[in-house]
């Protein structure tokens, strides 16, 4: 059995709810692939079927009469004919055996007297229009998804554009939302404290209300923010501009997973708790001790969870002195900051290194991937692949595509923005200076955890491990040779690889 596909949509008002011709064709091809139907021709026209005399319809009829095809695949009988003349033609062709089969994804038909009777009604009745509205709307959503457009209300950080019917970045909320992800990525937040943060920073939901706790984790898990869409369990590529990078998103997923595991809650909040471990590998705990004089101190000591331990406790004021000494090593004053900024800017102006070639290579691969995706769809439509295989392969290719896009963005951003990164680094050195000046203890622990890791308590000493490039700053003499730190620190574009 050979089939001809026929799709139609008129520009008339009452046809607005009908699928576009493009959507009809896609649906019909997928339908044919699923049903393993052979297609010999695909015809479409943008004319109303209320009046007889459509050109393409006439072509289809003569195509069938000549015996080049013996069946029709069409979205619904109302696409085929909506006037008695054309309807009668079709019925007559069925009667004569010229049309041996007709397939409609949303209308059941078989060439029996009852079937023909139903068909005749379908041809004449606009009632079917209404009946199929619901199904059509659903298919319309799927077509939107296929085109990479979210068919529903945009999530927080995006806006529905009523004019283009697309999704725009909410310029107001997107930066805050990015910060929201970054905050969580520090690992310092619970969902609860992240909600507090959102409220303090006035990050409001789509309906301009405070974010609910349940929305926090939903937002953190939403792939929409990296340019994908999850619709009925399947991941699709979206046309919306990503708000956050895949790297950041992946980091957040890791933390969500970690925090999802059960853990004990802390009874007290001690300022420097969580900053360091004992040299034996066990965690450090803190407790209050009252002296005979009535004065109260905080002691940090080994929990001895990993067996006996020789390490002694450390009193908080001594620890605080040691912390300040470390901060002093990287502290940059406001005056120095100004000079460093000036030097960096001068260097940036000189720097002419471009990454055009790298970017071009990546873009070439990207273009190849597009072709692969198209081919994959063709293969799928031809019925060679099962839906499962198709989805799996498509997902793999989409992941690679995302990676490439990210790399291009990386080079473009770092190539152009190393100055920004270097400035951020320098600013953090200045922040050490500010923390010292204000004696802000509560902000010190998160700051110290950002600029180093695996700090230890050993011989009543805090043994600090700098995170590069902070080690360079700590080891550098005064005044800072910021230029060489920046070069060694991985900020400049030449350290970027493809
Ligand atoms: Zn210990």
Automatic annotation (TrEMBL):
Keyword check for Transmembrane: no
Sequence ranges assigned to domain Resolvase/invertase-type recombinase catalytic in this UniProt record: 2-148
Highest taxon listed in the record's lineage: Bacteria
One MF annotation (Gene Ontology) recorded for this entry: DNA binding
Keyword field: Coiled coil
SMART domains, per the entry: Resolvase
Annotated protein name in UniProt: Recombinase
Lineage: Bacteria, Candidatus Magasanikiibacteriota
